[in-house]
């Protein structure tokens, strides 16, 4: 039962990354690449009727995590206290900006919200990468001094970074050069992903430019992925055992690789949706590779005293998990139905939808 | 540790108070939108369709505000109340996760379709999307109140040796005796809020001589639904809710009503008075003898236990706050019934649109359902103190043991700043939309 819920949480997080990920990417493209009002409007139209529902995935996955793995929820949320609350503020700011922008037609009002939308999207993409970096690297679960655990396992960080900026330091921060590297990968991959969505959903004048930007960024992405995987091996060699013990999980890096390869062909696709499929594959593969490699750990401990948080030691009891599975399956089917309905109704290019003037 | 508990409680109280300003309107409004859209299908009068779309625009901004201010609440269970989450997450996480999976997806998916899809869908399907938005928002209320009810009156659980609560009966969560009276009471109260907002905007249009056609429609709808809902909020649902409190939390009931000493031969109902906690009495009281006993037990002479009969360490932590919150809620509820009743009378005599006094009063009253609902929520929450899970887990034992109080103070101040800004922007935008009025569809 734990494994069932673990898979559910991983899949839901991956879906959230893919869906809200293109909103973040669209925000970054909106900030840096779109120049004219027409182009900006095309980008906002491309996410107009969807982003509300995309954000709901975060609430849903939060709820599922809360009930299926209450100990993990409690430990990680209070352990990552400050960064999580700051992520909340950014999410609030970005959503409000999107919603309020179209309500008043005034140049200053609109440009303030454009910047808020873009900058919040950029920072969120960065922070989600950094978060993944923290999970890979592990945290100082429970804070150990002189071989004795001095704090409960809810405590990871006091400062957000330590002066040496190193992932090897005794007192780790949220931010070090390794986690920032993953943060940059997050920004670049979501930019590509968002650009692919815009190409898919609009006839914008940007589309040609975006294809060539994706093509170039893809080289940067490949380089960063290679660097991070080789450093990762040094920082935390244990994960690679999973790939030897359970060879079937090579499917996940394979998916990642397929996604990356596909993105190089972005200029020659016959249909505009293909690029989005490949960047989704890359995100899905990248995320699942990461979590599969540390399984059964969910949050590895960097100290020897406190055990890591694993799928088994953080789950709720069996009755709750199995009764939850029943309603969850019903609700998941409904969610899939709604999602199909929305995408059927709003199929094709979104250019004619009047965003914000509904 | 003491100030940690204080900041945690303030942060939750502040964020949930701000949050609940939005869903109470969206829940009530979604019902009125279904009514408008239904009337359009029935009469083919375009006015109703324009009205439905106008209010859905306001609904959508409210909805987004509700969603973004709701995410921090869910997160705070983990960030600020880690111990509570760890111990009870297996139970209350069920209903919270169901809220996300069943209601938010429904609401947000079909809201997009309602807002953008009228031409693509046709009128009947457009009505259906509006109805599904309504269903989603009311389901969301149900699942939140189910979570809340479990904290007020825990059911279907057992406690393990390590202190963890585990679920052993899922259906008990929904047959909880605390749940249904509070749910219906709460939903009707949200209809009161929406009625005053819709009616108030109508009254504003009439007084301001703009969009008069819509002014009359909004005012009439607001008065009719406002009278029905405010009556039902008081009786029978308010009555049911109060009876639950007497039955399951008698100590809370004593504090709400301001009863310190048990009186022989029936309790009086307190209309006005100020609790004096130090001397355990009520100052300057105006009361009617024996009414409370009758309302509670349908028996004029049955005794109701006063606070002094209970162990002081289980007294609600803020007795005067609880007393005032309850009396504000009841007092305002009575005023709503009186005002809406008078407006209804004028409507039947066909004088409503010209009675300026009522138009002004309804506009002036717009904030008060919000205050009444907040006071109602406070009554429930302060009433449960000092417990997080009634009689089982104390609030002080639920906070995150290792987050520093400096961090909670910082995030509390951050939320205050951010939400004040949001509130201001929200008022500007909503004010502008209301002033501009409904968009009239050309035939």
From TrEMBL, chain A:
Give the way it sits in the membrane.
Multi-pass membrane protein
Please report the name of this protein according to its UniProt entry: Cytochrome d ubiquinol oxidase subunit II
A GO cellular-component term linked to this record:
cytochrome complex
One example of a Gene Ontology biological process annotation: aerobic electron transport chain
Q: Which UniProt keywords apply?
A: Cell membrane, Electron transport, Heme, Iron, Membrane, Metal-binding, Transmembrane, Transmembrane helix, Transport
| Pfam families given in the database record | Cyt_bd_oxida_II
The record lists the lineage as: Bacteria, Pseudomonadati, Bacteroidota, Flavobacteriia, Flavobacteriales
> Which family is it part of?
Belongs to the cytochrome ubiquinol oxidase subunit 2 family.
Q: What organism does the record attribute this protein to?
A: Polaribacter cellanae
**Gene name of the encoded protein:** cydB
**A GO term, aspect molecular function:** oxidoreductase activity, acting on diphenols and related substances as donors, oxygen as acceptor
Domain of life of the organism encoding this protein: Bacteria
Asked if the Swiss-Prot or TrEMBL record annotates the protein with the keyword tRNA processing, the reply is no
The protein's location, in the record's own words, is:
Cell membrane
* Membrane-spanning ranges: 6-34, 55-74, 80-96, 116-136, 174-192, 213-235, 247-264, 276-299, 319-341
Q: Which residues form a coiled coil?
A: none
TrEMBL record, chain B:
In Gene Ontology terms, what is a biological process of this protein?
Answer: aerobic electron transport chain
Kindly state one GO CC term assigned in the UniProt record: cytochrome complex
Compartments reported by the entry: Cell membrane
Could you tell me the membrane topology recorded for this protein?
Multi-pass membrane protein
Q: Name one GO molecular function term.
A: metal ion binding
Q: Transmembrane residues, as ranges? A: 20-42, 54-71, 91-116, 128-151, 183-205, 217-235, 324-345, 357-378, 409-435
Keywords, A to Z, come to: Cell membrane, Electron transport, Heme, Iron, Membrane, Metal-binding, Transmembrane, Transmembrane helix, Transport
InterPro entries in the record: Cyt-d_ubiquinol_oxidase_su_1
Please give the superkingdom of this protein's source: Bacteria
Family per record: Belongs to the cytochrome ubiquinol oxidase subunit 1 family.
Stated name of the protein: Cytochrome ubiquinol oxidase subunit I
Provenance organism = Polaribacter cellanae
């Amino acid at each position: 039962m734990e494994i069932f819920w673990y898979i559910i949480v991983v899949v839901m997080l991956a879906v959230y990354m893919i869906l809200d990920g293109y909103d973040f990417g669209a925000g970054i493209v909106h900030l840096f690449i779109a120049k004219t009002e027409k182009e900006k409007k095309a980008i906002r139209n491309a996410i107009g009727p969807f982003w509300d529902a995309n954000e709901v995935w975060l609430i849903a996955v939060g709820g599922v995590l809360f009930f299926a793995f209450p100990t993990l929820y409690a430990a990680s949320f209070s352990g990552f206290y400050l960064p999580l609350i700051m992520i909340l503020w950014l999410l609030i700011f970005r959503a409000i900006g999107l919603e309020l922008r179209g309500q008043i037609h005034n140049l200053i009002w609109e440009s303030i919200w454009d910047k808020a939308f873009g900058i919040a999207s950029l920072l969120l993409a960065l922070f989600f990468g950094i978060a993944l970096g923290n999970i890979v690297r592990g945290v100082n679960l429970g804070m150990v001094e002189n071989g004795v655990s001095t704090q409960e396992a809810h405590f990871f960080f006091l400062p957000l970074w330590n002066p040496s900026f190193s992932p090897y330091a005794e007192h780790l921060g949220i931010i070090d050069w390794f986690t920032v590297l993953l943060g940059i990968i997050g920004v670049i991959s979501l930019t590509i992903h968002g650009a692919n969505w815009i190409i898919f959903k609009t006839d914008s004048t940007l589309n040609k430019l975006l294809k060539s930007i994706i093509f170039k960024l893809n080289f940067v992405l490949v380089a960063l992925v290679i660097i991070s995987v080789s450093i990762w091996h040094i920082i935390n060699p244990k994960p690679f055992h999973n790939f030897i013990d359970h060879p079937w999980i090579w499917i996940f890096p394979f998916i990642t690789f397929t996604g990356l390869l596909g993105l190089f062909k972005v200029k020659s696709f016959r249909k505009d949706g293909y690029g989005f499929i490949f960047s989704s594959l890359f995100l899905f593969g990248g995320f699942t590779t990461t979590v599969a490699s540390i399984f059964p750990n969910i949050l590895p401990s960097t100290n020897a005293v406190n055990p890591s948080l694993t799928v088994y030691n953080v789950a709720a009891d069996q009755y709750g998990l199995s009764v939850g599975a029943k309603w969850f399956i019903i609700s998941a089917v409904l969610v899939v139905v709604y999602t199909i309905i929305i995408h059927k109704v709003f199929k094709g290019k979104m250019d004619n939808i009047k965003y914000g003037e509904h | 540790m003491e100030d940690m508990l204080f900041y945690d409680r303030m942060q939750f109280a502040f964020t949930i108070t701000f949050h609940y300003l939005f869903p109470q309107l969206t829940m009530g409004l979604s019902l009125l939108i279904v009514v408008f859209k239904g009337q359009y299908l029935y009469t083919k009068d375009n006015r109703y369709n324009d009205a439905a779309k106008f209010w859905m625009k306001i609904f959508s901004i409210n909805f987004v505000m509700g969603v973004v201010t709701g995410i921090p609440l869910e997160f705070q269970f983990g960030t600020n109340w880690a111990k509570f989450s760890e111990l009870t997450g297996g139970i209350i996480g069920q209903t919270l996760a169901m809220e996300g999976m069943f209601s938010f997806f429904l609401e947000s998916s079909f809201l997009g379709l309602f807002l953008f899809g009228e031409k693509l869908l046709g009128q009947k399907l457009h009505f259906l999307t509006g109805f599904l938005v309504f269903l989603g928002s009311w389901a969301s209320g149900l699942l939140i109140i189910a979570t809340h009810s479990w904290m007020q009156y825990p059911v279907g659980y057992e406690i393990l040796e390590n202190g963890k609560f585990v679920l052993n009966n899922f259906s008990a969560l929904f047959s909880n005796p605390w749940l249904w009276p509070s749910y219906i009471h709460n939903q009707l109260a949200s209809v009161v809020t929406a009625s005053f907002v819709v009616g108030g905007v109508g009254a504003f249009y009439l007084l301001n001589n703009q969009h008069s056609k819509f002014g009359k429609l909004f005012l009439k709808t607001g008065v009719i639904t406002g009278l029905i809902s405010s009556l039902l909020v008081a009786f029978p649902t308010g009555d049911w809710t109060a009876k639950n409190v007497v039955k399951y939390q008698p100590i809370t009931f004593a504090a709400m009503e301001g009863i310190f000493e048990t009186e022989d031969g029936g309790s009086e109902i307190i209309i006005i008075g100020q609790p004096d906690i130090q001397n355990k009495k009520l100052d300057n009281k105006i009361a009617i003898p024996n009414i409370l006993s009758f309302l509670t037990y349908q028996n004029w002479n049955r005794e109701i236990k006063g606070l002094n009969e209970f162990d002081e360490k289980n007294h609600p932590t803020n007795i005067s706050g609880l007393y005032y919150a309850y009396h504000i809620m009841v007092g305002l509820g009575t005023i709503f019934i009186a005002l809406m009743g008078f407006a209804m009378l004028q409507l039947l005599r066909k004088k409503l649109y010209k009675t300026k006094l009522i138009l002004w009063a309804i506009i002036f009253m717009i904030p008060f359902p919000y205050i009444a609902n907040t006071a109602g929520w406070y009554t429930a929450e302060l009433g449960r103190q000092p417990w997080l899970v009634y009689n089982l887990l104390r609030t002080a034992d639920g906070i995150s043991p290792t987050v520093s109080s400096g961090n909670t103070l910082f995030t509390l101040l951050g939320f205050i700043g951010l939400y004040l800004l949001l509130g201001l922007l929200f008022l500007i935008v909503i004010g502008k939309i209301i002033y501009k009025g409904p968009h009239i569809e050309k035939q």
